[in-house]
Amino acid sequence: MIADRDILRVSGLTMRFGGILAVNDLSFTARRGKITALIGPNGAGKTTVFNCITGFYRPSAGEISLTHDGGETHRLDKLNDFRITKIAKVARTFQNIRLFPGMTALENLMVAQHNALMRASGLTFLGLFGAPSWRAAEKQAIERATFWLDRIGLRGRADDAAGNLPYGDQRRLEIARAMCTEPVLLCLDEPAAGLNARESAELSELLRNIRAGGTSILLIEHDMSVVMEISDHVVVLDHGVKISDGTPREIRDDPRVIAAYLGVEDEEVEKVEQELGL
Ligand SMILES: Nc1ncnc2c1ncn2[C@@H]1O[C@H](COP(=O)(O)OP(=O)(O)OP(=O)(O)O)[C@@H](O)[C@H]1O
């Protein structure tokens, strides 16, 4: 069977908080094996969309479906966050770092594989007695953690407390931790926030590697150099509504996007366009 080109389809997504319409009838798709960026000015609704996709919020209306390579489709708007991670295989990171700072880098990656280890122990205390199934699963978990420590260049710091690592390393460790759950879709909320130029370049390299490995990525990002450099497809939100959708180049040249970022009203778009010579 040929896999569906789109891994994620969001259709008519609406999210209300009392009188606030944070996301209004939003539709877009994310392609399989590609990097899709969700951008927009502050308060545009990006994190709310992420929270709906990853089950932190139940949408007020709309459908979110994720299709695995084999054709199996999951309605994310109907699943809770636990099942979205475990069954639909969607992983996420947050705007603020949420590592366990007192645990080592390796331990942080092992904790992410807790579900697999528990399954191998038959959900009992067999692990404590070193049952063969548990030992095999533990070996595999260590191998996977080591693989990701290598990928992010932190093998040599495996035993250091995560909280003592430089900020950029912590950001990459968080992404590695999400990858240890073997997601089909990785959702990253502002991964480049607070990074210096060298750390941003390392992040871009890591995300390209993850894409090359076949994992699809959905990314919220304010750092336009990262967005333009690595995204295959960009969706632009403003006031909860999609205002543009296309390649990074198409987005960059879209007067509606420029106007939204400059904070001007619709009727001024033409003026901005003229001023920029578009
Ligand atoms: N839990 C909530 N309760 C009430 N209003 C909310 C809630 N979450 C978000 N909002 C509102 O929804 C709108 C969209 O917010 P959201 O955080 O999704 O935007 P954003 O594009 O991610 O912004 P930023 O780039 O600043 O992170 C804002 O007006 C915000 O105040």
UniProtKB/TrEMBL annotation:
<dbReference type="GO" id="GO:1903806">
    <property type="term" value="P:L-isoleucine import across plasma membrane"/>
</dbReference>
<dbReference type="Pfam" id="PF12399">
    <property type="entry name" value="BCA_ABC_TP_C"/>
</dbReference>
<dbReference type="InterPro" id="IPR027417">
    <property type="entry name" value="P-loop_NTPase"/>
</dbReference>
<dbReference type="Pfam" id="PF00005">
    <property type="entry name" value="ABC_tran"/>
</dbReference>
<dbReference type="GO" id="GO:0016887">
    <property type="term" value="F:ATP hydrolysis activity"/>
</dbReference>
<keyword id="KW-0067">ATP-binding</keyword>
<dbReference type="GO" id="GO:0015808">
    <property type="term" value="P:L-alanine transport"/>
</dbReference>
<dbReference type="GO" id="GO:0005304">
    <property type="term" value="F:L-valine transmembrane transporter activity"/>
</dbReference>
<dbReference type="InterPro" id="IPR051120">
    <property type="entry name" value="ABC_AA/LPS_Transport"/>
</dbReference>
<dbReference type="GO" id="GO:0005524">
    <property type="term" value="F:ATP binding"/>
</dbReference>
<dbReference type="InterPro" id="IPR003439">
    <property type="entry name" value="ABC_transporter-like_ATP-bd"/>
</dbReference>
<comment type="function">
    <text>Involved in beta-(1--&gt;2)glucan export. Transmembrane domains (TMD) form a pore in the inner membrane and the ATP-binding domain (NBD) is responsible for energy generation.</text>
</comment>
<keyword id="KW-0029">Amino-acid transport</keyword>
<dbReference type="GO" id="GO:0015188">
    <property type="term" value="F:L-isoleucine transmembrane transporter activity"/>
</dbReference>
<dbReference type="GO" id="GO:1903805">
    <property type="term" value="P:L-valine import across plasma membrane"/>
</dbReference>
<keyword id="KW-0547">Nucleotide-binding</keyword>
<dbReference type="GO" id="GO:0005886">
    <property type="term" value="C:plasma membrane"/>
</dbReference>
<protein>
    <submittedName>
        <fullName>ABC transporter ATP-binding protein</fullName>
    </submittedName>
</protein>
<dbReference type="GO" id="GO:0042941">
    <property type="term" value="P:D-alanine transmembrane transport"/>
</dbReference>
<dbReference type="InterPro" id="IPR032823">
    <property type="entry name" value="BCA_ABC_TP_C"/>
</dbReference>
<feature type="domain" description="ABC transporter">
    <location>
        <begin position="8"/>
        <end position="264"/>
    </location>
</feature>
<keyword id="KW-0813">Transport</keyword>
<comment type="similarity">
    <text>Belongs to the ABC transporter superfamily.</text>
</comment>
<dbReference type="GO" id="GO:0015192">
    <property type="term" value="F:L-phenylalanine transmembrane transporter activity"/>
</dbReference>
<dbReference type="InterPro" id="IPR003593">
    <property type="entry name" value="AAA+_ATPase"/>
</dbReference>
